[in-house]
Specification:
The structure is a single chain. By secondary structure, this protein is an alpha+beta fold. Helix content is 28%, strand content 20%. The chain contains 17 helices and 23 strands. A six-stranded antiparallel beta barrel has the order 1-2-3-6-5-4. Helix 3 crosses helix 5, helix 6 crosses helix 8 and helix 8 (357-369) packs parallel to helix 10. The radius of gyration is 29 Å and the shape is globular.
C-alpha cells in the first residue's frame, strides 16, 4: 500500500479491498474446450474488468479490442476469470471462494463509432472507451457498488486491476488521488502517487471516503505514474432502447440495485456486504451534517432497491422535473442525462439552502411513489415505497412527516387527474392527437454563420416546450466548425440531448434553427447513434432563428415589398397596431387553421418548372390552410427571398428541399408526391411524423418514397417560442 496514506484512508482501503477484489476480473482470450478454471492456458491478460450487476462485466473497449484491429468488438467472445461467491471477513482468499473462468460476449462498446473508426496500435482510444460484457453462463459472483453522483469528488481513491508482479495473475489495489477531469467530464485524472501497471486497464476506481466505484482505469502516463480513468457516469450514454422497450442502462442499474438490496436483507450468512462496510467507513472530514441529516447506508440501499422495484421513469426530463421540485432550482445540466430513479438521488447530494440530504431524498421518493411510470407498477410497489418513506421519516422530525403526508396526498390527486385525462374524460381531452408530435421537451440545434467565413458556430439545447414556453437548457456549444465537420462535432451533444428528451412512447422532436440559407443543411441524414439517420429515427423540422432578424451576413432578400426582413406594410384600418403585434396575430391565425386543415399546396419558387419570386400580395391572399412549397436551393434566389417572404406573410408551415445533384431532373415528381401526401395527411399537425415515415420508407429502399429525398419541413410552432439570442462568439 502507498506510503503517506491517512489513517482514515488506510482503514477505508482495508475495509473495501476485499469487496472490490472479489468483484474484479481478469479479461483474456476465451477459454478452450478443455481448459480448467484458473489455468494459464487461458492465455495472456488483456486487461481487467469488474462485475457491476449479476452477469454483467464493465471494462474498457480497448481491452476487448486486444487481438487485432480487424476483429469486430460487439459480439466478440472473451474469457473472464473471477472469484466465485463473495468474500468472507478474510478476503477473497478465504475459505468459500473459488476462482473460475467463464466465457462472456461483448454486448456493446462506447462510443459506437469505435466499430468503424478504431485507433491504431498504442493510440489512445476515444472516450468514453467502455465495453459491457454479458457472461454466458449462470455463475455466482460479487458486484461492486456504483456511485450515483453525477460528478466525482476530488478525494483519495483506490484503483484495482490484474497485475503479474510475482509471476502469476492477481488482482491488486493501490491508492492515489483524483486531481481533475478531462474530456468534458467523461474522464478523471489520477495523480502520480503510483504507477498503473499493464493489465490494470478496465479495473475499478473506488472513492475511499464514500465506498463507491467512480471510474474505470483507462490509461497510464508514458512519462511516469498517474493516468486517466473513465467516469462510470458515462454508462448513461449506452444506446437508447427502441420505443416501448427498457434500455440496457436501466436494466443493468435495476439489477445492480436489487443485487445490493437482496444482499442487505439476507441473513443466510455472515459475509460482509457493501452496505455493512459503508456503515463502518471513517467519518468524512468537513461533513456539514456530521453524519446527521443523511440517510444511513442501510436506508440508502433500501431506497435504491425500492426504486428499482418500480418501472423506469417515462423520460429523463421526468426525473429532472422531480429533482427540481425538491431542490428548488434546476439541477446541473452538464452531466449525462439522469435515466433512472436512482440517478435522481445522485442530484440531491448536498442540496442548496442547508436542507438535509435525507429530507431531500425522502421528498423525492414521495414524488416518485406517485409519478408517471413507463407501465403500471407491480401491485403494491409504489405503496411499499411510500410506507418506507413514512417510516423512515419518523427518525427525523415531526414537521417533515406531516409535510411528506400532504405531499403524498397532493401527488395521488394529481396522478388520478392525469389518469382521467388520459382516459379521455377530462374536459381538455387527450394531450396529443393521433399522429401528432409528442407534447414534451424537444431538442434545439442552432447554427450560425461565423461572419463571412465558411465556418459556423453552434449550440445544442433542450427546449422545454409548451409546459415552460421559451425555457432553454443548454447542453453544449462550439465555434468555427466547417459544414463537413458539423456532424462529427455534434454527434455527442445531440446524443446527450436526445437522452434527456426521448420517452418510452416517442422519440423527441429535433428543431433545427438556422437562417434560411442553411435550410439545405442535411441534418436529417446525419447519424448520431444506432447507425440510422436522424430523420428516420425522429421528426426533424426547420425553424428560423429566434427573434425576427436573421443571423449576421449579407442581405437575404431581393428588393421589393414583402421580401425583406421588415415584411409587408400594415393593412389599412390598423395604423395604431404595432407591426410585430400584427404579424404575430396573423401568424397565429394561419397556424391554427393550417393545423386543422384541409391542406392545399402552392408552388412558391417555381411555376411549371421555371423559377419565380412570389409577391407579398399573392402570398397574403392565399387561404390560411396553404402550405407553400419550395423545390430549389434554399441559399439561392428566388428561393431564399421566397422563404423570407413566406415567413413575413405569417406562414408557420412550409416545405423546402435540397434539389438533386443533377440540375436537369424535373421537380414534377416531388410536387406530385407532396400534393398527394398533403391531401392524405389532411391536417398539418401530423406532417412532422409523416415526413419521418417517408424518410424511413426511402431508407428502406421503397422507390415510391424516393421523391421525398432532401425534403424539409419549416415548422414555426407558436407554442414552442425560441429565445431571442445572439450568435456565439468564440476565440477567433
Amino acid at each position: 500500500m502507498t506510503d503517506g496514506r491517512t489513517t482514515g484512508t488506510a482503514r477505508a482501503f482495508e475495509l473495501l479491498e476485499p469487496l472490490v477484489q472479489a468483484a474484479t476480473v481478469r479479461v483474456h482470450a476465451p477459454p478452450g474446450g478443455y481448459d480448467t478454471p484458473g489455468s494459464h492456458r487461458t492465455g495472456p491478460t488483456w486487461g481487467s474488468g469488474f462485475f457491476i450487476a449479476p452477469g454483467w462485466v464493465l471494462t474498457c473497449a480497448h481491452v476487448v479490442g486486444e487481438g487485432g484491429a480487424a476483429v469486430r468488438l460487439t459480439g466478440r467472445e472473451v474469457g473472464i476469470t473471477f472469484h466465485s461467491g463473495r468474500p468472507r471477513y478474510g478476503g477473497p482468499g478465504a475459505p468459500g471462494t473459488v476462482t473460475g473462468t467463464v466465457t462472456g460476449r461483448v454486448e456493446c462498446v462506447l462510443p459506437e463509432r469505435l466499430e468503424e473508426r478504431r485507433p491504431g496500435r498504442h493510440a489512445l482510444w476515444d472516450l468514453p472507451d467502455l465495453a459491457l460484457i454479458r457472461v454466458l453462463a449462470p455463475v455466482s459472483h460479487a458486484c461492486v457498488w456504483l456511485t450515483d453522483r453525477s460528478r466525482p469528488r476530488f478525494d483519495e481513491v483506490a484503483y484495482f486491476g490484474c497485475t503479474e508482479d510475482l509471476g502469476t495473475p492477481e488482482i491488486t489495489g493501490r491508492t492515489t488521488r483524483l486531481r481533475g477531469t478531462a474530456g468534458n467530464g467523461a474522464a478523471i485524472r489520477l495523480a502520480d502517487d503510483d504507477e498503473i501497471d499493464p493489465g490494470m486497464s478496465g479495473g475499478p476506481v473506488v472513492d475511499l471516503a464514500r465506498g463507491e466505484v467512480v471510474g474505470v482505469v483507462k490509461a497510464r502516463r508514458h512519462t511516469g505514474g498517474g493516468g486517466l480513468a473513465v467516469s462510470v457516469v458515462q454508462l448513461r450514454t449506452l444506446p437508447m432502447a427502441a420505443r416501448g422497450q427498457v434500455g440496457l442502462y436501466r436494466r443493468i442499474m435495476q439489477a445492480h440495485d436489487l443485487y445490493h438490496y437482496d444482499q442487505h436483507l439476507s441473513d443466510l450468512d455472515n459475509r460482509r456486504t457493501w452496505t455493512d462496510v459503508h456503515g463502518e467507513l471513517p467519518p468524512q472530514e468537513r461533513d456539514p451534517y456530521g453524519g446527521r441529516g443523511r440517510l444511513t447506508p442501510g436506508e440508502r440501499t433500501t431506497l435504491c432497491g425500492l426504486l428499482a422495484e418500480l418501472p423506469p421513469p417515462s423520460s429523463s426530463e421526468a426525473v429532472r422535473a422531480l429533482v427540481e421540485a425538491v431542490r428548488g432550482e434546476e439541477p446541473d445540466p452538464q452531466p449525462p442525462a439522469p435515466l433512472s430513479w436512482r440517478d435522481g438521488l445522485g442530484l440531491l447530494h448536498d442540496p442548496p439552502g442547508g436542507t438535509g440530504e435525507a429530507a431531500a431524498m425522502l421528498r423525492y421518493a414521495t414524488d416518485v411513489s406517485v409519478a408517471e411510470y413507463r407501465e403500471p407498477p407491480t401491485p403494491g410497489a409504489d405503496e411499499e415505497l411510500w410506507d418506507w418513506v413514512r417510516a423512515t421519516a419518523e427518525r427525523l422530525w415531526r414537521p417533515l412527516r406531516r409535510e411528506l403526508g400532504e405531499r403524498h396526498e397532493r401527488g395521488l390527486a394529481e396522478r388520478e387527474r392525469r389518469r382521467r385525462a388520459s382516459a379521455g374524460r377530462a374536459a381538455g381531452g387527450p394531450a396529443r392527437r393521433a399522429g401528432g408530435l409528442p407534447p414534451g421537451a424537444s431538442v434545439l440545434l442552432e447554427v450560425w454563420a461565423h461572419g463571412w467565413e465558411h465556418l459556423y458556430d453552434w449550440r445544442v439545447s433542450v427546449l422545454a416546450g409548451p409546459a415552460h414556453p421559451g425555457r432553454l437548457t443548454p447542453v453544449d456549444s462550439g465555434v468555427r466548425a466547417t459544414v463537413a465537420g458539423l456532424p462529427e462535432r455534434l454527434r455527442a451533444p445531440l446524443a446527450e440531448a436526445f437522452r434527456r428528451c426521448d420517452t418510452h412512447v416517442a422519440a423527441a422532436l429535433l428543431e433545427v434553427a438556422v437562417a434560411p440559407e442553411l435550410f439545405g443543411l442535411a441534418v436529417e441524414d446525419w447519424v448520431v447513434a444506432g447507425g440510422v439517420p436522424l430523420g428516420v429515427q425522429r421528426p426533424v423540422v426547420l425553424r428560423h432563428p429566434g427573434g425576427r432578424s436573421a443571423a449576421p451576413g449579407p442581405a437575404l432578400g431581393p428588393n421589393g415589398p414583402g421580401t425583406g426582413p421588415g415584411g409587408p406594410d400594415i393593412p389599412p384600418g390598423g395604423p395604431q397596431a404595432h407591426p410585430a403585434d400584427h404579424e404575430a396575430g396573423r401568424a397565429a391565425a394561419r397556424w391554427a387553421r393550417v393545423q386543422a386543415g384541409p391542406l392545399q399546396d402552392e408552388r412558391a419558387d417555381c411555376a411549371g418548372g421555371r423559377p419565380r419570386a412570389p409577391s407579398a400580395e399573392w402570398l397574403s391572399g392565399l387561404p390560411d390552410t396553404t402550405v407553400p412549397v419550395h423545390c430549389r436551393a434554399a441559399d439561392q434566389e428566388p428561393t431564399l427571398g421566397s422563404l423570407h417572404a413566406v415567413r413575413d406573410a405569417g406562414y408557420g408551415v412550409a416545405v423546402t428541399r435540397r434539389p438533386p445533384p443533377d440540375p436537369g431532373v424535373s421537380c414534377a415528381p416531388f410536387h406530385r408526391g407532396l400534393r398527394e401526401e398533403l391531401a392524405d395527411a389532411g391536417r398539418a399537425e401530423v406532417l412532422p411524423v409523416r415526413l419521418q415515415t417517408l424518410r424511413g420508407r426511402a431508407y428502406g429502399a421503397d422507390p415510391d418514397a424516393y421523391w421525398a429525398a432532401g425534403a424539409g419541413l419549416v415548422w414555426e410552432d407558436p407554442a414552442r417560442p425560441l429565445p431571442d439570442v445572439e450568435p456565439l462568439h468564440g476565440d477567433l
